[in-house]
């Protein structure tokens, strides 16, 4: 079986009233997910996540929150092959809401927690969002 490893981030921004909005991207295949992509040779997970954030959202400045990582695992079919994929998500705060998409995505949305939960396509991504929200509530948003 083919193995694939990606890294990405739950990106959020905070407005002056401390409302948190999460950045979701719509993949050209249709599903809504966080920014992520394959880990390249010589990169560690956070370097890959940082590069993917830049490539997929145009956001250059993010603050990574130490102590958070969410893991997702799934299988999908690529042509005839079954691929086992593991993705690690970091938590990253952006001061800017300006997004420049790559050609991998067809849309983006900054959404509050409830709308993000509804919009994310896969249950495993929804679980990472819930973990991120809990982490923010118990640390940053206190
Ligand atoms: P990457 O964003 O890591 O570069 P990619 O563009 O190849 O990867 P994925 O988002 O991993 O795309 O999608 C590959 C396949 O897996 C698609 O069929 C997609 O619908 C499916 N998929 C994506 N995320 C999940 C998930 N959390 N659970 C189950 N299936 C998923």
Summarize the structure in words.
With about 140 residues, this protein is an alpha+beta fold. About 25% of the residues lie in helices and about 40% in strands. It is built from 3 helices and 8 strands. The chain has helices at about 45-55, 115-120, 125-140; strands at about 1-15, 20-25, 30-35, 35-40, 60-65, 70-80, 80-95, 105-110. Strands 1, 2, 3, 4, 5, 6, 7 and 8 form an 8-stranded mixed beta sheet that branches. Strand 1 and strand 2 (about 20-25) form a beta hairpin. Helix 2 (about 115-120) runs antiparallel to helix 3. The longest helix has 16 residues, at about 125-140. The N and C termini lie far apart (about 45 Å). The mean pLDDT is about 95. Adenosine-5'-triphosphate binds near residues 33, 37 and 76.
Helical content (DSSP H or I, runs of 4+) = 25-40%
Continuous helix count: 3
Which distinct ligands sit in these coordinates? adenosine-5'-triphosphate
Shape field: globular
Poorly predicted parts:
none
Q: Structural class, please?
A: alpha+beta
Characterize the main sheet. 8 strands, mixed
Order of helices and strands: EEEEHEEEEHH
* Radius of gyration from the alpha-carbon trace, in angstroms: 15 Å
Query: How many β-strands, per DSSP?
Result: 8
Mean pLDDT: 96
Summarize, please.
With 142 residues, this protein is α+β, with helices and mostly antiparallel strands. It is 25% helix and 42% strand.
Properties at a glance:
single chain, 142 residues, alpha+beta, globular, binds adenosine-5'-triphosphate
Secondary-structure blueprint:
Elements: E1 2-14, E2 20-27, E3 32-33, E4 35-38, H1 45-57, E5 62-64, E6 70-78, E7 81-94, E8 105-111, H2 113-119, H3 123-138
Parallel strand pairs: 1-7
Antiparallel strand pairs: 1-2, 1-4, 2-3, 2-8, 5-7, 6-7
The structure holds adenosine-5'-triphosphate.
Residues 6, 27, 29, 31, 33, 36-38, 72, 74, 76, 85, 122, 124-125 line the site of adenosine-5'-triphosphate.
